[in-house]
């Protein structure tokens, strides 16, 4: 697989000098997939990581799973989530499993300390214990199990690449990729993950934002109605979708991936920071939205990420994080 031709997008400075350079690519496309603004290598293959989650939930929605199990938009939002492992997230994941007659032990996502603590810079309570429901992907995996239960597929093999579920998901991803190739790997939660052209990921989110099909509209509604379930306290997707007030559907992915759809403009956006740096991704994302004329409110909580100040542990300002790119303006 060739190395994408990424370009410098974001720098960190210290003492007025550039200290770190974060390369990446940006794709802004219309709903037909035409790249209308791009930097770097907007058509290169990139692993989607958790930005794939809405597409992984799509087969369940298309098959009528929502009505089959009496799931609401809350359950669907959690299927698309990289949640913080807060109690509300755990409760909904447990409710999903109860409705399909499955248990926490049927999940195969593994376990980690809830993301809430890193996002809020707080310490877990002494002696706290976690299970797989606290994993940020537990909603996605519960949705996987629900799909298998609906069709009578064995639960134990739901992550196998050649299982009916994962085969269906791969076909969905290939459909959004069109004639372009896709790549296959294993995600941090042990589910198959797919690499697709950055521009095609952007198009998928544009189509979702405008509700190109009833199923895509249902995904966008759930995510924008419940950004706190898709994300969590102190998390970037929560801030983005709250600021967008229903116009922006947003999903971050590990290792520097951000995908957004903007309903009012009929566009999709995908950003990749090649070294996976989250601060650089956040700065790039907010600057893209501003340059496209989507983020206009200078008093928005997002505005502070246009050119944030870096501080040391004493709170002393030591530098900045700056976008070093310019996109053409859309009309």
Radius of gyration, CA atoms, in whole angstroms: 19 Å
Name the overall outline: globular
- What's the CATH topology label? Beta-lactamase
The tally of helices reads: 12
What can you see in these coordinates?
- With 331 residues, the chain is α+β, with helices and mostly antiparallel strands.
- It has one domain: Beta-lactamase (3-Layer(aba) Sandwich), CATH 3.40.710.
- 36% of the residues lie in helices and 21% in strands.
- It is built from 12 helices and 11 strands.
- The chain has helices spanning 53-62, 65-68, 73-79, 87-100, 115-119, 138-151, 164-177, 198-210, 214-225, 227-230, 236-244, 278-291; strands at 7-14, 17-30, 35-39, 45-47, 183-186, 192-197, 248-253, 257-262, 267-273, 309-311, 317-323.
- The strands form 2 sheets. Strands 1, 2, 3, 7, 8, 9, 10 and 11 form an 8-stranded antiparallel β-sheet that branches.
- The longest helix is centred in the N-terminal third of the chain and has 14 residues, at 87-100.
- The two termini are 36 Å apart.
- The mean pLDDT is 96.
């Amino acid at each position: 697989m060739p190395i994408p031709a990424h370009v410098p997008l974001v720098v960190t400075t210290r003492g007025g000098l550039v200290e770190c350079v974060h390369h990446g690519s940006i794709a802004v496309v219309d709903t037909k997939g035409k790249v209308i603004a791009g930097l770097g290598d907007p058509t290169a293959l990139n692993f989607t990581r958790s930005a794939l989650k809405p597409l992984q939930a799509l087969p369940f929605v298309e098959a009528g799973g929502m009505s089959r199990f009496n799931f609401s938009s809350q359950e669907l939002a959690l299927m698309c989530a990289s949640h913080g492992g807060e109690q509300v997230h755990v409760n909904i994941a447990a409710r999903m499993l109860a409705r399909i007659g499955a248990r926490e032990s049927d999940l195969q996502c593994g376990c980690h300390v809830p993301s809430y603590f890193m996002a809020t810079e707080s310490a877990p309570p002494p002696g706290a214990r976690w299970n797989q429901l606290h994993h940020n992907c537990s909603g996605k995996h519960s949705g996987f199990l629900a799909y298998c239960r609906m069709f009578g597929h064995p639960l134990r093999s739901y992550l196998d690449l050649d299982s009916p579920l994962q085969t269906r998901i791969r076909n969905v991803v290939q459909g959004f990729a069109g004639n372009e190739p896709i790549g296959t790997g294993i995600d941090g939660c042990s589910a198959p993950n797919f690499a697709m052209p950055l521009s095609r990921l952007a198009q998928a989110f544009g189509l979702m934002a405008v509700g190109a099909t009833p199923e895509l509209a249902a995904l966008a509604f759930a995510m924008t109605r419940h950004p706190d379930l898709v994300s969590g306290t102190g998390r970037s997707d929560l801030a983005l979708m709250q600021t967008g007030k229903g116009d922006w559907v947003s999903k971050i992915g590990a290792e520097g991936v951000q995908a957004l759809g903007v309903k009012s403009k009929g566009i999709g956006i995908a950003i990749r920071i090649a070294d996976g740096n989250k601060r650089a991704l956040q700065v790039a994302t907010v600057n893209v939205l501003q340059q496209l004329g989507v983020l206009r409110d200078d008093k928005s909580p997002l505005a502070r990420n246009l050119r944030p100040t870096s501080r040391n542990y004493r709170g002393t300002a030591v530098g900045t994080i700056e976008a070093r790119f310019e996109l053409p303006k859309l009309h």
